[in-house]
Amino acid sequence: MASFDSTFLDLGRLDNLSYNDTIIHRIDPRAKLLVTVVFIIVVVSFPKYALTSLVPFFFFPILMAYLAELPVGFLLKKLLIVSPFAVFIGIFNPFLDREVLVHLGSFDITGGWISFGSLILRFVLTVGAALILIATTSFPGICNALDRLKVPRLFVIQLMFLYRFIFVLTEETLRMVRARRMRSFDKKRPGIKQFVQMVGLLFLRTLERAERIYLAMCSRGFDGEIRTIKRLRFTLRDLLFLSLFIMLFAVFRFYNTNQILGNLVLQVFR
Amino acid sequence: MSHHIIDLQDVHYRYPDGTQALSGISFRIVHGEAVGIVGANGAGKSTLLLQIGGTLLPTAGSIRIGEIVLSKKTVKEIRKKIGFVFQDPDDQIFMPTVFEDVAFGPLHLGWTLDNVEQSALKALEKVNCKHLKDRPPHKLSMGQKRAVSIASVIAMDPDILVMDEPSSNLDPRSRRQLIQLLNTFDHSKIIASHDLDMVLELCERTIILGEGRVAADGRTRELFSDEKLLAENGLEKPLSLQYQRLRVAK
Amino acid sequence: MHMADALISPTVGLTFCAISGGTIIYSAKKLKEEANEKIIPLMGVLGAFVFAAQMINFTIPGTGSSGHLGGGMILAILLGPYAGFLTLASVLIIQALFFGDGGLLALGCNIFNMAFWTCFVAYPLIYRKIVKQDSQPTMITFAALVSVLAAMQLGPFSVVIQTLLSGISDLPFKSFVLLMQPIHLAIGLVEAVVTAAFIAFVRKARPEILQAAATSRLLAQIPIRKVLIGLGVVTLLTGGILSWFASSHPDGLEWSIERITGKSEISEPVKGIIPLLGAIQEKSAILPDYGFKPGGPPQTDEMQADQSERGEAWPAIASGTTVAGVVGSVMTLALAFLIGFVFKRRRSKVR
Q1: ipTM
Q2: CA B19 to CA B4: how far, in whole Å?
Q3: Domain boundaries, position C346
Q4: Which domains, and CATH codes, for chain B?
Q5: Are residues C205 and C338 in the same domain?
Q6: Which residues of chain C does A7 touch, with a Cβ-Cβ cutoff of 8 Å?
Q7: How many beta-carbon contacts under 8 Å exist across A and C?
Q8: Chains A and B: how many Cβ contacts under 8 Å?
Q9: Tally of domains within chain C
Q10: Do C326 and C177 share a domain, yes or no?
Q11: Taking CB atoms and an 8 Å cutoff, what residues of chain B touch A215?
Q12: Residues B180-226 pLDDT 10s
């Protein structure tokens, strides 16, 4: 994992993006959430050796990133530093599955390499879709969407609190980490004992904060029952966004659009 | 209706660990009055505010807000009358967007949704923060946070505003804006602070606390000119009064 | 370790989303019955606390490498199983969105692997069994160590199972287990030591917190029977839904069962359903596989005719059509830019 500062700043940058105002940011969070989930399910529903058939799906992230004016370089960098578990597991495939599936000239390509390639495409598409979702939808918006989609309110509300206080607490932690760094010249990171002391201190402060927040809630009429305002309005535009993309994914899934489109073009030029 | 909107009679409080924080506090605050509460650290300011907010109940003596005597049963009623602004806006603003936070109070008082929305927007307008309504709190400046936390309280239309160190951590300009803002409110106000200059500007009357008792209660300007009284209670003459004297001397 | 979208099939992903989602609904209901108002802000803030603590790296003694906290068991101990589960699930949601850890579909798997085992198995069945009202500090430390280690072995094991059932990775069961479990024994050991040290710290600084968690009505022990029934339901659900899809996925369940048991036969009860489902599947084959398919026998043009009934299996892709495919891909992506361009131009005109 990267250093605390860079992780913290990355988090803030992604969060900042989500409050921009573009045509995509203005779409109802429910529509964006559903489209993203359907996208991911369709992408992973391809069989393990699917390679070229996954390519058309880049249509979605590219269009979204473009319309939402997202910094593509930043998102790609985030993709690279994401937990490499999938790639780590996938890299075994080429060694295990050595049956030759494709001959490209004198090159023999084994099933393992194809399934590994497919896995990389899946990885980029699915993680990319999740990152684009949060870069185009504010987290409170996602919480509102979950609330309206009947996720238990208690869960949603503490998800909201979690988001709210992540920024308060990480900032507090950042100050502690920096203060420690200034006083220790030889060691870059704390040892376990020192770590537990730091985290312990943070915990005690957090408990006190929880107590004060509870008081603040009580002094504003909280009685155990959480109420929320319904602020979302699902418009025709949102419906269009939702249905068009899902239809598109269906076409990509059930028809070999590459082949059809390619043949069409080649025929025209012939 | 009683004209005395807050009435404390011989209030004592001892913390469970045995610390005696308040030992016999009595005062009355009438409608529309702005009262500063000052005193050294540990004089009992915070404890007193927690009592008025109903968080702690006096171990002896009584607190009356309007017609209601504070007790476990009446805490909820009393909290509707008192708008409590906490010292750290990061505790006060707990919802993930400004609008949702300001609407929290009205919503939980059981108002109709239309009323909730209206009063929230009105409160935000009052503190000049309507344009911030969809922002998350962590993207606000300290001054904005303070303003929003005040909005979240006045949206509930309280009779009395109770504020704990409202000017702490503010840069000079934000502090100035806050003072101007608070001067436009006609609520009764109780302001606990170490910022004596602000108290001087906002409050006609001041109560000086010392060791859990009322050390002095009177007109702010008079009390703050009494250097002996201030020194006895670990306080210093506000800069604006010192400066005045210098000017006179010249 | 986070399970990733890229490694799972939709069936496995959705099944575990259903399991974790159900557990979230159940836990929220249980917490509501408890009616402890203070728990709501406490959960949110402690979630943020664990999140912040996870971001601090520390040095692992003796190795010089860096580690960081997971914090699952800490949440379970401080908040009890239900609130702990919900809080941990929330932390995982934030990680999936902001850090791309895992993915949205794999969220169900991740919540199950990390939060479920910790809060509903390791905590109630190990930690709570060892720690009693008047337990000695050494006993509490011991309990924290053992329960964290157990959770950190169960989690990776279910990662293995989920991966095998999905059939994207070629790793055989045995090597996968041998790969995962020892690594997580090491990771788990560090997590266990940190957790135990942290609990010891809390016990000294704020003993009443642990006391409150220990005496609360809801946080009291979860009966083993209930957990076992729950796990049974999970198994049945997983097995049932997966076998439903197995017939359409030659690489899926059968494949992994073959690897696990060493033979390709499926046990009796499942056998009854599969032919029936297979028939339905054939009639309503909704998911044509037009990727490269492993052909089995050596693939020559003459054998094309015997290839699977689905038209676009691998041998159909001759070099000529490959060109068409590449051109098509390029076209699709160019179209994305074009649409974006048109939309933006229109919008700036409106402005």
Answers
A1: 0.91
A2: 30
A3: 318-350
A4: 4-249 (3.40.50.300)
A5: no
A6: 55
A7: 382
A8: 94
A9: 2
A10: no
A11: 53, 55, 86, 91
A12: 999 988 889 999 999 999 999 999 999 999 988 999 999 999 999 99
